[in-house]
Design brief:
With about 525 residues, this protein is an alpha/beta fold. The chain has 17 helices and 24 strands. It has 3 domains: about 220 residues, Aldehyde Dehydrogenase, Chain A, domain 1 (3-Layer(aba) Sandwich); about 190 residues, Aldehyde Dehydrogenase, Chain A, domain 2; about 35 residues, no CATH class. It has a 7-stranded mixed β-sheet with strand order 12-15-16-11-10-18-19, with helices on both faces. Strands 7-6-5-8-9-22 form a 6-stranded mixed β-sheet, with helices on both faces. The protein has a 3-stranded antiparallel β-sheet with strand order 3-4-24, with no helix packed on it. It binds nicotinamide-adenine-dinucleotide. InterPro entries: Ald_DH/histidinol_DH (IPR016161), Ald_DH_C (IPR016163), Ald_DH_CS_GLU (IPR029510), Ald_DH_N (IPR016162), Aldehyde_DH_dom (IPR015590), Aldehyde_DH_Superfamily (IPR050740).
Length: about 525
């Protein structure tokens, strides 16, 4: 069934209607799933999982690569759904397909290697007669819950590792942006002949909670508040969870940096996806000697940004709308609070008419008493602060309950290396912003309130969806073993003596001389 449909075709009591944030028109609707429907879907996915696991990583990759082909064949249609439900610029929407391509190619190319059995040497003389092996087995059903800022890219970053691992996956996209992902899952189930191990449960928090109650492991991306609630529920159910949560990422510009590049990078890092990126740059600390020039360059570049929802394929705008009007309210509140406490707006600072737009904004004369420096803004703002030296920059960057990612600009590699070790965040991009997040061979994860666990990280990106299973095999199958019953005193004494002889580190203890 194609779940995506026009609103009028569906029962409004159980339907989520989606409006375009750029202009408010209705762009689609999906049926909402209640707890019973989620349980039924979970049951179907579970029953399909053993055959999926039996295919092995190579067999599973065939289906993922077919899915990639189908996504690319339908790219414009799917990215149009992304754009319509988020109000993104076409450029920002297109990045979501780039993420899908990279993640599917990386994990399918490496899945077999990542999941290979590990043969290990036994420890202890008595175990020499045994072969040891660790094999990995997937969690049967992974629950995947995602936010609204990347309707295609966000679930894609995690679903691929779980499918390559051999798990079945029950996804719950954001109720604000369900269209593109519902269509991607329909493609999996109806267009490419893949086994029915990928399900999509649409709905809001209650549906998400039902997914958590059905899953064997939960991968969650979203706010700290929801992440904490999910962690509590997972603890009650004694199942693992991995949480990718909010951020308040700092960017530090040192006096020896390439200021032109740093300014362009800060603008991109702060404004990409209209600032609705967990790893978006929100706070900037600049050493005094280059502060004025940096601020001038950033202000020029931000003022020149073209904002709007451009036509599919046109690439005519730099940034688009914000996904929800509630998020626009948060941005407006942060700017108002900063201005009330003495900050200056150098460009932007207001809502734009005709949709969920907020002007790209530069704030200066900010400090850490202001909300814009403490709470996640998740919008197109850059708040810039002058610092006297690197110690002050690091102290301020670390003065946050968040620790997702960070960015450091300097021409001195040794200095970058030294300072990266003082930053309290899960990743550091040197002379760039945001990029540390999308490196699949290394882990991406938040410190402090920004998360628990990591995504990607090479083999970990698949193994996090697996359980380790140890297999111990006897080399020789004798009729009986020395330690088996009955206990014969003479034999037991010899074993105890031999154990001591081989395990002690000096002759007195080896021979048991002088022991009590
Ligand atoms: P949110 O926490 O409100 O919602 C996220 C998802 O959780 C949605 O699908 C929602 O329906 C679901 N949900 C809500 N209550 C639930 C419950 N009790 N049990 C289970 N599921 C529930 O977040 P949001 O507003 O959609 O997204 C914005 C947040 O996501 C920001 O804080 C942003 O920083 C964060 N984010 C983090 C990353 C990362 O990788 N670290 C990436 C993107 C976004």
């Amino acid at each position: 069934m194609n779940e995506t449909s026009t609103a009028s075709a569906l029962d409004p009591r159980t339907t989520i209607t989606v409006r375009c944030p750029g202009d408010g028109r209705i762009v689609g609707a999906v049926p909402e799933m209640d707890e019973a429907a989620v349980a039924a879907l979970a049951g179907q996915l579970r029953s399909a999982q053993p055959a999926w696991e039996a295919l092995g990583p190579r067999g599973r990759s065939v289906h993922l690569l077919r899915w990639l082909d189908w996504l690319l064949d339908n790219e414009r249609r799917i990215l149009t759904l992304v754009q319509q439900e988020t109000g993104k610029s076409w450029a920002d929407a297109s990045l979501e397909m780039a993420v899908a391509i990279d993640v599917i190619n990386y994990f399918t190319a490496n899945g077999e290697k990542f999941m290979a059995d590990r043969t290990v040497k036994a420890a202890g003389a008595a175990n020499k007669v045994r072969r040891l092996r660790v094999q990995v087995r997937p969690h049967q059903l992974v629950g995947l819950i995602t936010p609204w800022n990347g309707p295609l890219a966000s679930p894609m970053m995690d679903v691929v590792g779980a499918l390559v691992a051999g798990a079945a996956v029950l996804c719950k996209p954001s109720e604000v942006t369900p269209l593109a992902w519902t269509e991607a899952v329909r493609g999996w189930n109806e267009e490419i002949g893949a086994p029915p191990v990928l399900g999509c449960a649409n709905g809001a928090g209650a549906t998400g909670a039902a997914v958590v109650d059905q899953a064997d492991m939960v991968m969650f991306t979203g706010s700290v508040r929801t992440g904490r609630a999910i962690a509590v529920r997972c603890a009650q159910r004694l199942i693992p969870c991995s949480l990718e949560l909010g951020g308040k990422d700092a960017l530090i510009v040192l006096a020896d940096a390439d200021i032109e590049r740093a300014a362009a990078g800060a603008v991109w890092g702060g404004m990409t996806n209209s600032g609705q990126a967990c790893v978006g740059v929100e706070r900037v600390y600049v050493e005094a000697p280059v502060y004025d020039r940096f601020v001038t360059l950033v202000t020029e570049k931000v003022a020149a940004l073209r904002q709007g929802m451009d036509q599919p394929g046109s690439f005519a705008c730099d940034i688009g709308a914000m996904v929800t009007s509630a998020q626009v309210d948060i941005v407006a509140d942060h700017v108002a609070d900063a201005v009330a406490k003495g900050a200056r707006v150098l460009t932007g600072g207001h809502r734009s008419p005709g949709g969920n737009f907020f002007e790209p904004t530069v704030l200066v004369d900010v400090d850490h008493t202001m909300t814009c420096m403490r709470e996640e803004t998740f919008g197109p703002t850059l708040a810039i602060m002058r610092v006297s030296n690197e110690d002050e920059a690091i102290a301020l960057a670390n003065d946050s309950e968040y620790g997702l990612s960070s960015s450091l600009w300097t021409r001195d590699r040794a200095r970058a290396d030294r300072l990266s070790r003082r930053i309290e965040a899960g990743s550091v991009s040197v002379n760039n912003a945001v990029v540390a997040t999308f490196q699949m061979p290394i882990p991406m994860g938040g410190w402090k309130n920004s998360g628990l666990g990591t995504r990607f990280g090479g083999a970990h990106g698949v193994l996090k969806y697996c359980r380790q299973q140890s297999v111990v095999e006897e080399r020789f199958a004798l009729k009986s073993e020395l330690l088996w019953y009955p206990v014969i005193p003479a034999k037991a004494r010899i074993i105890a003596k031999l154990t001591r002889l081989m395990g002690a580190h000096d002759w007195r203890r080896r021979l048991g001389i002088g022991r009590s």
